[in-house]
Amino acid sequence: MPDSWTIVPMQMLCSLTDGEKLDGKGMPNLDVKYLRGERDFKTLTNGRYVAANSLLILVDGENSGEVFRTPIEGYQGSTFKQLHINENMLAEYILHVINLHRKALRENKVGSAIPHLDKKLFKAIEVPVPPYDEQVRIVTVINSMHSKLDAIMENL
Fold this sequence. Notes:
4-stranded antiparallel beta sheet; 31% helix; 29% strand
């Protein structure tokens, strides 16, 4: 690993929180089915506020660890936590690191009736942290490769 890089636990780079509780304002319920485009949103008059373009991580259920970016403001679904990434990190870099660990997060849930994201495991993920410019370069390469793979898959 280059000397300019460090390795830190995920908990030093991001946090999981609930939004501020609001009552009396009609807003969309940002649940999994809406965020996946499987249905229109339902309007609620209270809940935990989420700003547009926020990150939500699924913490309950089979797909724990899946991350969504909110297209609009609303109330966070009950199966989510808000994911706040340190402003000194490139968010997309951290999202790629989380995606690398999605299988482990999905396979190591806690709870019996409803499986939950193992927050201790999530917080302990070791993240290699390059300088910011290198994070940008890494994300650019990953995105370029994903575009090429998408093009290949379309032509199969």
